[in-house]
Amino acid sequence: MVCSFSNENVFNPSLARIVVMKEDSFGLDLPNVCWHCKQCNAMENCPTKALERNEEGLVFVNEKKCTGCTKCSEMCIIGAIRLHPERRTPLICNLCGGKPLCVQKCPTRALTYVETGAQQPRLPNQVIKEALGRWKIFV
Amino acid sequence: MSKYYGYSGRILRINLTKNQIRIRPTEKRLITEFLGGRGFNSKRLYDETLKETNPLSPQNKLMFATGPLAGTAFPLGARFNVSAKSPLTGILGDSNAGGHFAAEMKFAGYDQIIIEGKSQKSAYIFIEDKELQVLDAEHLVGKDIYETTEIIKKDVGNRTIQVAAIGPAAENHVLYAGVFANLMRPAARTGMGTVMASKNLKAVALKGTGSVQIADPERFWKIAEDIEDEVYAHPQYWPRRIMGTTRILMLANRLGILPTRHFTSATFERATEVSGEKLAREYNVKNRACFSCIVPCSRFYVITEGEHAGHFGEGPEYEALSSFTARVGNSNLDLALRAVDLANRLGLDAITTAECIAWAMELYEKGELAKSETDGFELRWGNGEAILALIENIAYRKGFGDLLADGVKRASEKLGKGKEIALHVKGLEIIQADPRGLKGYGLGYAVASRGADHLRSEPFIELSDDPKKGMEMFGVPEATLRLAYKGKGRLVRYFENLCAIVDSLEVCKNLAENMELLSFNRAAEIAEAATGFHFTEEGMFNIGERIMNLERAYLVREGIRRRDDYLPARFLKEPLPDGSSKGAIFEIEPMLDEYYGQRGWDKRGIPKETTLKKFGLTDVAQQLSRYVRLCP
After folding, report:
1. Confidence band, pLDDT 50/70/90 cuts, at residue B31
2. In chain A, which residues have their Cβ closer than 8 Å to the Cβ of B104?
3. Residue A12 falls within a domain, yes or no?
């Protein structure tokens, strides 16, 4: 909520740059957000090269070039690129200038802000499997 | 965007008989007089159902409503109400649940969804922003809550939708079946699921991408952050996060109010074995929260050892835990978790189910019920096998379960036995706290507008046993002493009004009643910041009064009088046998007099004409006077 509020001044999780995937029957909640990977699959596959990297290395969308084809959301390896419900352009986390509000606001400190370097994110399915394994739930 | 800040601004009406859909703007008058949620529902229920309306007929209205704070960043504000005329009690039916459904309703663009008529075939409603479809649900008939939710998610190809569904219990017309959102967030009291089933409606599924805009973002944010800080610093924060409401089990045991073996005892000698503490230590693996909530009090558990190893689920809360442990004399926690899960999957109200089983067990133990009458089940206290089998037999109306499926009042009448130990008020079964040890709660059960229930008043402050608070708030030190009688009318009136506001803003009672962090003044401030309408402390109190008086008028129209504001004989005559409230009984008459006086109702429990007029209910007064003579 804090994400949509600070970026768009309204409350709307569909406009948030972070998404929490939920599986109620397994009690799972998995936050997903852009890692700004050094090697970005979405950026490489954007037909109009609308995804660019700024001087700090953060991925952002150049709205002038973006055609709303939504290829990026398919190509992101962890599915962290969400689309604006109306404009269909990607919503990508801008890290709130180095002090992410979602991390500050998280009641359980489930989110931390770290420098990942060259490390690639783990795939959501893998994370889920590990979590269930820890709880001795096997599916 | 909506015409009004905080609200989605639209009210949806679906007629399943005519396949007709109407969308109307949310009216300003409705907002300023009734706020939202329960207020909206109670108002419409009064206006649109009659004394003659059969709860299970197409003429009954099933309503989902939420308030101005749902879908915002307000902490602990993600609830919705489901209301209709109740098939269990025949009067006002209403139940409230949390989770993510309420917020999704707002994002989809609706403050209230009214369902009327009856579909020819089983159907479910799918709303995706502006698109609305009534879809065939023949393939979902007989499926439990989990299966139904899963299949609908697959059908519409979206796992992020929110589903409120009913289970087989509702389809078999068990009179106390609930509506379940997020799998295990039940609006289960008073049989709202049964009403939904009578309309041939299996589920309501929602997906919304809209926004909630608020009037004064800066002020709103400031108040929300202040409340967050206070919640984090509150002594109840960590206990609630670790144990949710299950922490109350040991507390109730200490206070001598645990409904052990159908209220024949007030302490459970094996309470530690089924406590929230044990659950937290040995079973819980993760916390979960409702939408935008900072107190993740719901817990996911896994059973790793023993007969039930491999079973997992979410919850339970105190009411359900106590239902299938102390109330039925069961000290096997694994079994209780299975029982709660089973009741949830089948779509039953855990409180009422447990009362029906416990009632039968007491009769059996007393020798008044023979094995031949119970399908061969030995209904001894804590017989796990019988408990699980009975839950299923109730849901499918099999054998002895068929009798219990009508609720304890009807069951005792039909059986011709056990009427004096059928623990209900106005047909709704009593919750898990013994009123003999909590007088304010007891008065709350007696007068609650939906029958025996604590969530209409929840004077949690009574548990503090602190006379200073009573003096400060009500000018009567006894008001906040749990075993005293004086001042309870004031106490219950105050907290009933607060609950009406809380249910209409759709905030969690943990915040307002338990943590005491949402006063009328603050409710006015946050409502004003969110909606832009001017609200005052007194105005808020009056909205609470208005809702309470309207609900009472509804009850009076249905024939409810003072004689119905009672507690079962057990609490009035039998002293508590043990525990720290030992010897206590419950004297209701003096408290009722004080309460009616405080409310501006006459001795019969009917609102006076001046009272109704004072709160802008002149039309209600006129209408009501056709049914009963109103005192001026």
Report:
1. very high
2. none
3. yes
Cβ–Cβ below 8 Å for A13 and B107: yes
Residue A139 falls within a domain, yes or no? no
**pTM of the predicted protein model:** 0.96
Which chain B residue has the Cα nearest residue A23?
B159
Class of domain B435-624: mainly alpha
Let me know if domain B239-391 sits in CATH 3.50.50.60.
Answer: no
Structural domains of chain A, count: 1
The CATH number covering residue A86 comes to 3.30.70.20
Q: Which domain does A125 fall in, by range?
A: 2-134
Q: Residue B43 to residues A19, B38, B134, B461: CA-CA distances in angstroms?
A: 37, 8, 26, 29
Q: Which of A1, A10, A134 lies at the smallest CB-CB distance from B292?
A: A1
Contacts of B146 in chain A (CB under 8 A): 25
Of B149, B184, B212, nearest to A11 by CB-CB distance is B212
Whether residues B302 and A11 touch (CB distance < 8 A) is answered with no
Q: How confident is the model over B182-218, as pLDDT tens digits?
A: 999 999 999 999 999 999 999 999 999 999 999 999 9
Contact B296 A107 (CB under 8 A): yes
Domains of chain B by residue range: 10-207, 239-391, 435-624
Which of B72, B211, B294 lies nearest to residue A107, judging by beta carbons? B294
Which amino acid appears at position B77 of this protein?
A: G
pLDDT for position B2: 64
Spell out the long-range contacts of B518-524 with Cβ–Cβ below 8 A and sequence spacing 24 or more: B518/B227, B520/B544, B522/B223, B522/B227
Owner of token pair 């000018």: B475
The one-letter amino acid code at B583 reads G
> Is residue B1 scored above 70 in pLDDT?
no
Are residues A4 and B296, on separate chains, in Cβ contact within 8 Å? no
State the CB neighbour count (10 A cutoff) for residue B78. 30
Does pLDDT of A137 surpass 90?
Answer: no
H or E segment to which residue B173 belongs: none
